[in-house]
Amino acid sequence: MHVVFFLLLCGILTCYSVLVIDLKRKSAAQGVVSETRIPAWIFTAWFVGAVFWGGRFLTIRVPGLFDITIERLLFLLVLGSVVHRMIRREKRSGQEDFLTEVAMGFLLILCLISMAIHGFRAPNPGMPDPWFLFLSGYLFPAIVYVFFRGQNLNLDLLEHIFWCFFGVGCYVAFLAYLEFFGLREYVYPRYINDPKIWLHLDRARGPFLNAGINGLIIVQAFLCGVYLYASKKPLRWILGPLVLAMIPTIYFCQTRSVYLAFLVCAVALATLLKVDLPKWKILALPTALVVFLAIGISPRLLSPDRRAGGVYQVEEVKIRLILIERSFEMILERPFLGHGFGQFLRVASERFRGRYPIPGTAEEQVQHHHLLGLWAELGIMGVTVYALIMLRGLTRGVVVISKKTLDERTRNLALVCVLGLVAYLLNNNFLEPGYFLPYNAAAFTFLASAENLYVYALSLHSPHIPTVWGTKCTAPSTA
After folding, report:
1. Given its phi and psi angles, is residue 269 left (phi above 0), alpha (psi -120 to 50 degrees) or beta?
2. Which spans in 368-407 are helix H?
3. Which of 177, 269, 362, 450 is the most buried (most CB within 10 A)?
């Protein structure tokens, strides 16, 4: 195992060195420092590794240390880039406050203090590990946010990231076809088919092993694909079929929260996306496919069988209602300080099992509503800070979308970022996102990009862009 670790580390460092040397050589030849390629390729390499080559794919356990995985090794590149820019003290184009960064830092400190009091590790193997939830749900996504906010944004960088999300989404959608039609012998990575991990095994759960997360990643990739289709005219012949092929895979995940997120995003795209051809030509075939699918499953819509097209899973609704009741009880007991980060399952099972039993099963359940779970664990301070972070990014993105003085490209990019974040927040009303690092990282990428686009719009000397929560409207110096 140590040999494998050494070879992986050497390979990553070699590839990074070659990339940096090549880009510096090209930049020197052109007399300009590249601000697009290095960040885009660093993030792409890590994000692909996080989606497909996480702990389920390969884990090297070193005694006394945390587990080492491919995606964590690749994450060193992201972290190294952040540290490098901090050491060099590079200034961003555009002056603004650091309110969101300060809020994230406060939330991270709050989590650490809570874990110091209530424990960093799970009390028994059957419960979630607070430290793992902290890393994958908050710390690493916050570093990704800082990584993108530290860049001097140009629109090409954001389009590179959209290509990354779209490419990952295309492969995840391809896996969904294989999973849904029983062609699992062709599925890669192989751990997706592991029968020991029984959750959502009968659905298209993808490399996340969770149908809700898998479907939402496809929805976000669909958003990126529609933007690329609208803006890349020479590639429409291939982008069009790929985007259309994603639509059935939303159904293959068989998750109602994903259906809702897709519906909201589709309506918003139809209303707000700026394109150079009539929207009915773009939306006619997708709409026809959705209507045809709805007609086909309508007689079975109230069936409890997901695969038959039913959405009437009453037992699951009852479980979520019980979890909500448990959350309210926990909130009323400790509304300000909470019961401890990552402690919902332990506290709920120890103290509320009798009053609010889970119907139909003896197995305990984690909270399936992110904000309620966060409130129960971190109290009013934690949930308020988190909500303000998200609300600030959404507000800035909406401001960019609504200003007709900006070019269509900028407004379309902001639209995709806002919808990607909205889809994430909607989906989180039905699950706990802390277990899924790439899912959270994608959302924080959209968050950082929405804020970057706002600052970018300010730098264009637009007098019509209002300030949002403290941003200074001074444009960057050209001296």
Report:
1. alpha
2. 370-402
3. 450
Distance, in Å, from the CA atom of 192 to the CA atom of 148, rounded to the nearest integer, reads 30
CA–CA gap between residue 42 and residue 49 (Å, rounded): 11
CB 372 within 8 A of CB 433: no
Q: Which residue has the tokens 């390499």?
A: 45
Spatial contact of 365 and 415, defined as CB atoms under 8 Å apart = no
Rounded Cα distance, 37 and 51, in Å: 21
Identify the bridge partners of residue 68 per DSSP, sorted by sequence position. Answer: 60
Residue 113: HSE in the Cβ half-sphere, 13 Å Cα cutoff: 12
Closest by CA position to 313, among listed 368, 379, 381 = 368
Helix (H, G, I), strand (E, B) or coil at 341: coil
Q: What is the pLDDT of residues 173-207, one digit of tens each?
A: 999 999 988 898 899 988 898 888 777 777 888 89
d(CA 413, CA 409): 6
Q: Has this prediction a pTM greater than 0.70?
A: yes
Nearest CA among 207, 200, 135 for reference residue 173: 207
Dump pLDDT digits (tens) for 235-247: 888 998 899 899 8
* Residue with tokens 């979890």, as numbered in its chain: 323
Query: Is residue 320 a contact partner of residue 430, using CB atoms and an 8 Å limit?
Result: yes
Residue 191 one-letter amino acid:
Y
**Peptide bond before 195: cis, by omega within 30 degrees of 0?**
no
Question: Is the sign of the CA dihedral 293, 297, 298, 302 positive or negative?
Answer: negative
Question: Tens of pLDDT along 259-270?
Answer: 889 989 988 888
Calculate the alpha carbon distances from 406 to 94, 432, 453 in Å: 17, 37, 11
Q: Is 339 exposed, middle or buried (0-12, 13-18, 19+ CB in 10 A)?
A: buried
Asked whether the beta carbons of 452 and 446 are under 8 A apart, the reply is no
* Structure-token pair, residue 345: 């399952």
CA 54 from centre of chain? 16
Q: Which two tokens stand for residue 398?
A: 């909406």
Nearest Cα residue to 394 out of 339, 465, 468? 468
d(CA 269, CA 136): 30
